[in-house]
């Protein structure tokens, strides 16, 4: 029996170009992709292949020049609900503690929730409750990235988009951070799409979508 997983996020005939005339740069060229509920996929390819641009398109941060983006069966809104983002650098707010970085995100997502205890729970999920009162400058690269993951999870995302989440980390720390993201996905069930140039990261996920020069050249699905 074939199990049909509902499509959560998709793009249809998406192109993204920058500039005009001879100076035009094509970041994505007629890309079709669909990601199902609960799926764990890598966008894999070398630098400049269009991974970040595709994540931005799926997350509503960049509007495609051509084509359309779908979110839960409807056209993607400009400020979609339910999509979390982990940036390449952790991008934490530097003058706020780890706890506050998570709590601000939680309060934006749901001001009526029990922000304090839920934020601490999220820090515990990434193993950092002891660092709740630390500023980003007092955290290691791996710890900062774990706070950034907790902050993204505070949105209660149905789709988590991660852009080279282990790109700045040494290989042991990178493996731990990736394992943590996968464990969170197993516990919470969101759809996970990770952009990476790292074959080991891609191998740790269930599906690999390979990008070259702004186009999908292979999809292991
Ligand atoms: N805002 C922009 N203006 C001009 N070119 C861009 C812009 N964003 C991305 N590009 C170009 O688009 C291509 C794909 O970029 P990107 O999506 O960042 O690739 P990746 O994340 O795989 O390294 C690259 O050639 C990059 O230089
Ligand atoms: Mg990139």
Number of domains: 1
- CATH fold group: Rossmann fold
Highest-level CATH class? Alpha Beta
Q: Between the first and last Cα atoms, what is the distance in angstroms?
A: 17 Å
Structural class: alpha/beta
CATH superfamily: P-loop containing nucleotide triphosphate hydrolases
Shape: globular
Bound molecules: adenosine-5'-diphosphate, magnesium ion
Percent of residues in helical segments? 25-40%
Number of E strands: 10
List unreliable stretches of 5+ residues. none
Give your account of this protein's structure.
The chain has 221 residues and is an alpha/beta fold. The protein has helices spanning 51-59, 98-109, 115-125, 141-153, 171-188, 199-203, and strands spanning 7-18, 25-36, 40-44, 66-71, 74-75, 83-86, 159-163, 191-196, 207-212, 215-219. Helices cover 31% and strands 29% of the residues. Strands 6-7-8-3-9-10 form a six-stranded mixed beta sheet, sandwiched between helices. A four-stranded antiparallel beta sheet has the order 2-1-4-5, with helices on one face. Strand 9 and strand 10 (215-219) form a beta hairpin. Helix 4 (141-153) packs parallel to helix 5 (171-188). The radius of gyration is 17 Å and the shape is globular. The model has no long low-confidence stretch (mean pLDDT 94). Adenosine-5'-diphosphate binds at residues 18, 25, 27, 45, 47-53. The site of adenosine-5'-diphosphate has 11 residues, from strand 2 and helix 1.
């Amino acid at each position: 029996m074939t199990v049909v997983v509902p499509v959560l996020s998709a793009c249809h005939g998406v192109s993204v170009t920058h500039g005009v005339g001879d100076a035009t740069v094509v970041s994505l060229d007629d890309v079709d992709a669909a990601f199902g509920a609960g799926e764990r996929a890598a966008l894999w390819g070398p630098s400049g292949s269009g991974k970040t641009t595709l994540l931005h398109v799926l997350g509503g941060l960049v509007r495609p020049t051509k084509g359309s983006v779908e979110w839960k069966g409807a056209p993607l809104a400009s400020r979609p609900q339910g999509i979390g983002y982990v940036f390449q650098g952790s991008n934490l707010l530097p003058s706020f503690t780890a706890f506050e970085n998570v709590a601000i995100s939680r309060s934006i997502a749901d001001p009526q929730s029990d922000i304090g205890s839920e934020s601490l729970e999220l820090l515990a999920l990434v193993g950092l409750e002891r660092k709740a009162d630390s500023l980003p400058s007092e955290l290691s690269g791996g710890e900062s990235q774990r706070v950034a993951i907790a902050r993204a999870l505070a949105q209660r995302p149905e789709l988590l988009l991660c852009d080279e989440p282990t790109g700045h980390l040494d290989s042991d720390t990178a493996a731990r951070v990736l394992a943590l993201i996968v464990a969170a996905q197993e516990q919470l069930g969101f759809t996970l799409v990770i952009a990476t140039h790292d074959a080991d990261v891609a191998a740790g996920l269930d599906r690999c979508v390979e990008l070259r020069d702004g186009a999908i050249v292979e999809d292991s699905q």
